[in-house]
Structures are given as structure tokens and as C-alpha cells.
Design brief:
The chain has 290 residues and is mainly alpha-helical. It has 13 helices and 2 strands; from the N terminus they run ααααααββααααααα.
């Protein structure tokens, strides 16, 4: 941020800083859900496709005449239900999380294309537009949604027994089981929470675009994982925080925004993002060794 503020006079303007928060809101919400899954030693590759499906279903129901609020609730409900389904396959069927969620990535995208017939859903009612583009006291609604979800996730991980169970399972699953931790239900809960994050992010994105795109969320799972890892979440499980993930999403968002202000080619932006992710991990590793 210091470097970018020196290179561009527009970087530290209030409007640009709010724009950065608005841009990172969707990735931050997804990354917070991803953090909960990674903490217990899992992974969720399906969040991008699940986002597209939840957004399409909510938009389709609203356009068909259902109450917008009810349509939004059903969209989030579908995302949570499919998250639970994946959790059951991981926790009780013993299937590897990578394979289960990779299958979900493909299947949920297919369901979205079937539901939308491959076409965007437009003509959304006002509540969708307010959620994606509205403001309250000058603060964008997507930013408020992100901050509320951040506080919820922080409370879950820091102040609840289930949060401590997530860390215990990620640290040593067998030891956690022998200590009386309900391992299987906690795993299901983690994927349900990731589904909740995907559903909320879907509503924000659908409102911002004023449409539900069948290709929405493509590649979002990788950005969510990157934000969590840059923020200090260990892919081995057992280590990470909600605030760390939020800062990880901000790092990526600030980098993207700064390079756009400097008119850096999109090709070079991809290279820079990869380098920053690796450097962040190296710095984190060096700091923790001291």
C-alpha cells in the first residue's frame, strides 16, 4: 500500500479504498468459508460452481414471481444443503475431500447450466440490486455483508467449542477423536458453513451484475484458497484465523487495484499475483521459525 500510494495519487483516495473493499468482498466471504474447511484439514473446490448455482436459483425464483427475500433464502439454503451433502460424503462415506469437492465443482456447474439453459437470468427485483450495489450511511452493502460475515466467522473460531474442535481436528484428527471431539459432525458443519459463504457471495455477485450468469464463479475457488493461505491458514489444517484470511483477501485486492491504476497489463498482473502469494508464504514461514 505504501508503494502504490507513492506511485499513484489516486490510490489512497476514500473512493478508491471503498472500491477495493467492494471488489474484495466476494472473495473474502468465500475465503472465510474456505478457511473453516481448511482448518479441519479439508478443502472445498466446489465453491465457485456452488456460487453460480445458488445465484441462478435465487434469481430464477425471484424472476418467476417468488418473494425476493424468500428467493434469496432458498438460494442460500440450496448452497448449505449441497455443502452438507459433500460433508456427509467426506465424514461418513470416508471419501477424500479433494475428490468429493472436485466432483461438486463439475456437477454443480452442470446443474447451473441445466437450470439456466446456458443463458443469464436478468430482470432482477430491487432487493437484489440493493444487496449488490446499494449503500448504507455511505458504506457499500457488499462491504457490510463481508464485515458481518467476518465477525461471525471470528466469533465461531475464537469463542465457540465448535471452533476449537475445528482446530483440534486439523491438528490431529485421531487425537481429537480420542479426546471426545465429534469429528464427523464437525466436518459436515465445516462444509455447510462453506456452503453458507458461497450462497451469500452468490447473492452479492448476482446483485452487482444485475443478473445471474451461468459461468459466474469460475476460478473463484482458487482465489479463495489463495486468500486463506496468504492470510496464514495452513493447508495441513489446525492453523489460521478469520482476520488473517481477511487480510489475505485485502492483499490480493490491493495488488489487483494498484496494478489497474498503474495500467499494468493483465498478463503481468497474473505473474505478479503468483509471485506475491509465494513471497507471502515464504515470509510467513521465516517469521514462524524464529
Amino acid at each position: 500500500m505504501l508503494v502504490l500510494s507513492l506511485l499513484s495519487p489516486y490510490f489512497l483516495t476514500p473512493s478508491n479504498l471503498l472500491n477495493i473493499l467492494r471488489q474484495v468482498s466476494i472473495n473474502a466471504i468465500l475465503a472465510l468459508g474456505m478457511t473453516v474447511v481448511i482448518l479441519k484439514g479439508g478443502i472445498d473446490l466446489s465453491v465457485g460452481s456452488l456460487l453460480a448455482l445458488a445465484g441462478a436459483m435465487a434469481a430464477g425464483l425471484a424472476v418467476a414471481g417468488l418473494s425476493p427475500v424468500l428467493a434469496m433464502g432458498l438460494g442460500i439454503g440450496v448452497a448449505i444443503a449441497l455443502g452438507i451433502l459433500q460433508g456427509l460424503l467426506v465424514a461418513y462415506a470416508g471419501l477424500p475431500p479433494f475428490i468429493v469437492t472436485l466432483a461438486g465443482l463439475t456437477a454443480f456447474r452442470g446443474l447451473t447450466l441445466v437450470y439456466t439453459d446456458g443463458r443469464p437470468i436478468t430482470g432482477l427485483p430491487e432487493p437484489f440490486l440493493f444487496l449488490g450495489n446499494g449503500t448504507v450511511l455511505g458504506i457499500p452493502v457488499p462491504v457490510m455483508a463481508m464485515l458481518l460475515f467476518l465477525l461471525l466467522t471470528h466469533f465461531l473460531l475464537r469463542y465457540t467449542a465448535w471452533g476449537r474442535y475445528l482446530y483440534a481436528i486439523g491438528g490431529n484428527e485421531e487425537a481429537a477423536r480420542l479426546s471426545g471431539v465429534p469429528v464427523a459432525p464437525i466436518k459436515v458443519f465445516a462444509y455447510a458453513y462453506s456452503g453458507l459463504a458461497a450462497g451469500l457471495a452468490a447473492l452479492v455477485l448476482t446483485g452487482r451484475l444485475n443478473s445471474a450468469q451461468p459461468t459466474a464463479g469460475t476460478g473463484f475457488e482458487l482465489d479463495a484458497i489463495a486468500a486463506a493461505v496468504v492470510g496464514g491458514t495452513s493447508l495441513a489444517g489446525g492453523r489460521g484465523t478469520a482476520w488473517g484470511t481477511f487480510l489475505g483477501a485485502l492483499i490480493i485486492g490491493v495488488l489487483n487495484n494498484g496494478m489497474n491504476l498503474l495500467n499494468v497489463s493483465a498478463f503481468y498482473q497474473l505473474i505478479a499475483k503468483g509471485v506475491v502469494i509465494v513471497l507471502a508464504l515464504l515470509v510467513d514461514r521465516l517469521v514462524r521459525r524464529r
